[in-house]
Structures are given as structure tokens and as C-alpha cells.
Write a structure and sequence with these properties.
409 residues; alpha+beta; five-stranded parallel beta sheet
């Protein structure tokens, strides 16, 4: 690539970068998109287990309630491009959508590639110039953007939008370059940590149940014994602790391991209150009255979990069921209603779905996404210090900030 000239250089070909490029080009601007990956939107293509939870079909107040940080910063952007407008945007481009449990929105095809492909065709149709190379630095003069230096030459421009994502999923191209570039230009970058990430436990029985999944259970998370999260769904035991949809959501509420202690409780039988569960246990004990305790739980728990339940109950495995006391049965019942899992921390940030932390929103104009420090410098997506819980809210942040930046250039 020889030296070029453009109106705008968008850095990063992920969700925010493609949306921003396409809209800016549709407005008539000459746009160059820098993306070294051979495939655009690599992270977008694997979100939602490859289905892509495009957004959440809800009101703006509900989105703000699902943003644990500075949600107020997004008020203007979300009003400009709320979920209903995002849905209309994709459907007008020929991508049918559907709304599922929890107001989660997916493509009817259940294929994340269709979302990325729709954005890529939208960009191409509007004349975005794609350059397969990396940015080295944003060049400024007198406090204003004048160009972007790449590995293959200089692109002179009047504005640039940094859409480089966070630190999660580095194999998709998330290197953290945007944080470095923002810092070099005088921006504050808040500490980054993993969010929507598996959790590590000190309990050896998690490893013993590695690969064992639980469905239709209720997971509760506690911070210093205060309930901070409770939800029904699925989870999984791993060699390091726990993972799965419920655990990822719970992790987003665990934001200060340095000063707080966290733990989990699993209600293995949420459909039964204690009285009904006790009656169910009694029926099973009558059914298997002459068996050893370890062999009498086959109708109540998965085979992988039974040895753990036996050990935690404190009831010897060879105890005959007909000799188990009322107190022992009550302890077993409590295990079913509040199975304990300690939490000692999260998995590394490169295993997280989302990065929490980033370019400080205090130094970005919420109405335009333009830097308050450098004229012509804009930010969109995960590079900003914004993250949300699961349910399509993080992509909604990407779409709204990209839309706002693109229409403010």
C-alpha cells in the first residue's frame, strides 16, 4: 500500500468497526478500514456459541440496568440507536431476526456468520476501502488527527475511529493495541480485567466432576455473603472450577477480588421447595431402603455427582438407607438446595468473552464519541471502559457507539 488519503480511517474490523465504516461511507465519506485479519468480524462470528446474540429486544432503561459501570455515558448513544433500530437495520439489510427467552435477539438462521456477512456486504456496497494491514500509530498535529501510520504506509485523514476491541479472545485479533494508542495520545486507560469469564475454585471436587453439566439449576453468587446474582439456567464443572452460561453471567458481578470474597451456591432442585424435596428424598429412601447410601441417590443426582454429594453430606457411603437419621437427611437436603462452590478468582482475561475497563469515558464526548483531548479522534465498542452482562447488551453497546461515531464524523 502506497501513501493514501481518506476522510476517515477506522481501525479494527470487528462489530463496531464494520458498523461504523459502513454508516460513515453511506453518508458519503471516503472511508478506509484497517484490519490485518483475513476474516472480518472474527470474534463476532463465534459469539453466542456461533449463533450471535445481536441485541436485546428491550427498553433503554433495561439496557442501562444491565451495565454495571458508567451506563449513563451511553444514554445519548442508545437513544440514537436503540435495540429496535438495530433490529430494523439488520432486517432491512435482509437478515431476519427472532427474539428468544430473556428478550435475546438472534438471526433466524442461528448462524453468526450471517451477521458478519451482512455487515461486510453493507460496507462493500457503500464503498469502504479495506486495507489488510495493522495501524502503527495515530498521527496528530496541533491537537488534531492528521493521519494514521500503518505497516505499509501513511494514510492522511481528518478523523480516525479506534474500534480495536479489548484483550479477550486474542486469537481473533484482540491485542490491546487501541489501549496503547489511546494512552500515547494522552487518554487515561482504566485497569482491564476479565468479565463474562469462567471462575476458578479451590474445591477439588470441581475437578473430579470435570465435564459434568447441570441444566435447569439456579445459581446464586455472593459477595461477602451478600447475594449479588441469582439465575436459572445451565453450567458446567471443569478441571479449574466452573463455567457455562450461568457462571459467565455471575462473573460480571464479581468486580473486586482484591477486597471481597466470593462464593457460589447451586440449587440442584429449584422446582421443589424444601418440604417437597424432603418428601421426594423420603420416597427414594423407602424405595432403596436396604441399599447403601451411596447407591440410593441414582434417581436424585447424576452419577458423576453422587460421590461428591456423599462425601459432603458426611454420611458414610456404606450406611444403610433405612438407618439414616432425620438430621443426616436434612444435611443432604441442604446440599441439594445450596450446593457450595468456592471462588478464588477468574480465568485469564484471554479466556473472557468481554474486557472490563479501557479508555476512560470521562475523556470522551458521549454525544459524539469524539475524544475531548484530540480533535478528530473517536472511539467505539469494547475499547471503551464499558461492559455489560450477557444477553446481547455488549453488542448493543458496540452498535450504538459505532453508530454515534459514524454520524458525528
Amino acid at each position: 500500500m502506497k501513501n493514501q488519503t481518506a476522510d476517515v480511517v477506522v481501525i479494527g474490523g470487528g462489530a463496531a468497526g464494520m458498523m461504523c465504516s459502513g454508516i460513515a461511507a453511506e453518508r458519503g465519506l471516503d472511508v478506509v478500514l484497517l484490519e490485518p485479519n483475513k476474516v472480518l468480524g472474527r470474534k463476532l462470528r463465534i459469539t453466542g456459541k456461533g449463533r450471535c446474540n445481536v441485541t436485546n429486544n428491550c427498553e433503554i432503561k433495561d439496557i442501562l440496568a444491565n451495565i454495571p459501570g458508567d451506563g449513563r455515558f451511553l444514554y445519548s448513544a442508545l437513544n440514537k440507536f436503540p435495540p429496535r433500530e438495530v433490529m430494523a437495520f439488520f432486517e432491512n439489510l435482509g437478515l431476519p431476526l427472532k427474539t428468544e427467552r430473556g428478550n435475546r435477539v438472534f438471526p433466524v438462521s442461528d448462524n453468526a456468520n450471517d451477521v458478519a456477512g451482512t455487515l461486510q456486504r453493507y460496507m462493500q456496497r457503500n464503498g469502504v476501502r479495506l486495507e489488510r494491514c495493522s495501524a502503527k500509530r495515530v498521527v496528530t498535529e496541533d491537537g488534531a488527527v492528521v493521519g494514521v501510520e500503518t505497516e505499509e504506509g501513511m494514510i492522511s485523514c481528518r478523523a480516525t475511529v479506534i474500534c480495536t476491541g479489548g484483550l479477550s479472545y486474542p486469537l481473533t485479533g484482540s491485542t490491546g493495541w487501541g489501549y496503547k494508542a489511546a494512552g500515547e495520545l494522552g487518554h487515561t486507560v482504566t485497569p482491564r480485567r476479565a468479565s463474562l469469564v469462567p471462575l476458578e475454585s479451590a474445591d477439588d471436587y470441581c475437578g473430579k466432576m470435570q465435564g459434568f453439566s447441570l441444566k435447569n439449576v439456579t445459581l446464586s453468587a455472593f459477595e461477602c455473603d451478600k447475594l449479588i446474582y441469582k439465575e436459572l439456567g445451565e453450567m458446567l464443572f471443569t478441571h479449574f472450577g466452573v463455567s457455562g452460561p450461568l457462571v459467565l453471567s455471575a462473573s460480571a458481578h464479581m468486580r473486586d477480588f482484591a477486597n471481597n470474597k466470593y462464593r457460589l451456591e447451586i440449587d440442584l432442585k429449584p422446582a421443589l421447595d424444601e418440604k417437597k424435596l424432603d418428601a421426594r428424598i423420603l420416597r427414594d429412601f423407602e424405595k432403596y431402603a436396604n441399599r447403601d447410601f451411596a447407591n440410593a441417590l441414582c434417581d436424585l443426582a447424576g452419577r458423576t455427582m453422587i460421590p461428591v454429594l456423599v462425601k459432603l453430606s458426611g454420611i458414610p457411603a456404606d450406611t444403610k438407607v433405612n438407618s439414616i437419621t432425620r438430621e443426616q437427611r436434612h444435611k443432604l437436603l441442604q446440599l441439594f438446595k445450596a450446593f457450595p462452590v468456592s471462588v478464588i478468582g477468574t480465568r485469564p482475561i484471554d479466556e473472557a468473552i468481554v474486557t472490563s475497563g479501557g479508555v476512560s469515558t470521562k475523556e470522551v464526548n458521549p454525544r459524539t464519541m469524539e475524544s475531548k483531548l484530540v480533535q478528530g479522534l473517536y472511539f467505539a465498542g469494547e475499547v471503551l471502559d464499558l461492559d455489560a452482562y450477557t444477553g446481547g447488551f455488549n453488542l448493543q453497546i458496540a452498535w450504538a457507539t459505532a453508530y454515534t461515531a459514524a454520524n458525528s464524523l
